[in-house]
Amino acid sequence: MKVSFADIQKARELLKDIICPTEMSHSISASNLLKSEVYLKFENTQRTGSFKFRGAYNKISNLTADEKARGVVASSAGNHAQGVALSAKLAGVKSTIVMPETASISKASATRDYGANVVLKGEIYDEAFEHAQKLEKEHGYTFVHPYQDPYVIAGQGTIGIEILEKVPDLDTVIVPIGGGGLISGVALAVKAINPKIRVIGVQSDRSPGMAHLYNKQPLSQIKRAATIADGIAIKNPSQVMLDSFISKYVDQVVTVSDDEIAEAIVFLMERAKTVAEGSGAAAMAAAMSRGLDLGKKTCVIISGGNIDLNIVSKIIDRGQILRGRLCELSVIVDDLPGNLSRLTQAIASQKANILEVRHDRVSKGLSLRETRIDFVLETTSIEHVERIKRALEETGAKVIQST
What we know:
Blueprint: H1 5-15, E1 24-27, H2 28-34, E2 37-42, H3 52-61, H4 65-70, E3 72-75, H5 79-91, E4 95-99, H6 105-113, E5 117-120, H7 125-139, E6 142-143, H8 150-166, E7 172-176, H9 181-193, E8 198-204, H10 209-214, H11 239-249, E9 252-256, H12 258-272, H13 282-289, E10 297-302, H14 309-322, E11 326-334, H15 339-349, E12 353-360, E13 370-378, H16 382-394, E14 398-402
């Protein structure tokens, strides 16, 4: 497969009056944390909530009249679905989108709202992809691939041009990887403009196929990639994308955990005042947790913001725990009057806020004269949590669990 920088420039001209020229702003908080001048590229504010609209619109706009008349079909965990649905609507083309049964309700609803016929099939993206190919053959639809397509890659590559227009002397760009369309287009574009720029790709460690291919590691068999980064959860990595683009233009590929992604989502909410979904925050997670060689100036692509509100509170709580801003502590003490008061006074002496308290006198392992007390505390740091634990132990309590 071939895509040239001229193809990306052509896509830029086509998209200029259609897409949002998303903001790229300097983050003081991220710069202080990472010891590099960090710029955030907010593709989570793009139309449909992610970068996917760029590639989908470029692809559908370049279809022949016959291809448009037959209608389009696509498979997606959510963001490509919305990009194709809106692009098809703008072009007056009928669209059918196959999404995994596990796709978030918000993404499926948004796709329908853009006018697409949504079909739910399979547990993971790869199964939805297979069903979309089946529908293509049965109904004669035109298939719009989410990443392995020259027009899609060229459309995503327009982000690379925008980035260097803002900061031409950039040293590093960090990009999430699912199927590889975004990083292929961005890497091709920035390397064409400045070959010295380092491009770092990021995958979820729950679906690390492309990272394993890139780093020449054995591929693991994954039935279902349960991750908060569902937008980049691809079971079977594409050798074509690796050979044609990623191995040529990408300098490093790393993986991040769900916990690290959750921490990045909370950081972006608190410091950048922006909402990122799991896949959208993956690049930020790598920047925060992998000790990468970033150089003097770095761009982190926040690729999407279509987060399911049902899991936002869980992600925030998990991120707060990892940062020491929220703490769950369990202690065992003698079941005597006044002990709870002594414990709460010890916590108060460390200036922590008690959010929840629960007594347990019947759990296995407790003697008849013991009680377990579980606390949920609002804290300020990991060090603060350790001071609280020491204060509780000084009262005679045994700290048995903390998160």
